[in-house]
Amino acid sequence: MPVVHDFRKYSYNSARIERCGRHIGSKLYWKLYAIENTFRIVVHSVLTAQINPNWWKVAVDPAVAKQASRRRAAYAAKPSNASPGASDIHLIYLSDLTEILRSNSHLFTPVVPDTNNWIAVLEAIRIPRNLVGHMNFPNAFDKAAIESAYSRLPSLFGHLSARAVPVLIPN
What we know:
By secondary structure, the protein is mainly alpha-helical. It contains seven helices and no strands.
């Protein structure tokens, strides 16, 4: 398979832009999708078990909750677009998920003993995630951070099952 180079380093060529898009989508975007949504599930599952199903009101910073409400209103104003889901956890950023982990680490650590390591992993992919999410071309360091985070995901569900925490997908 040919090496794909950042299209921005060359003169305009629509085929090169398409190759870059296909490459990023097939190699990295889906892994970021899996990482971010896995963390939504883990956060929801652990906090539901540790607090209750209404954990959002207790565990989320009011400023983050307010941003989620604003985003929900923006979606409601455009009903022809797809809904992000009923749970506000679908309306927050990876950095917000990381902050929920950090501020509630006392609730996560009994279930996920390496919570602090996971916070560091999520911080390490925050910038690469934004690069990919905003359609930029990540470098080798960014790609390695995403690959590393993705490869560690199965251990999260191992922690949940080892402690009999049900895996709950937020609506």
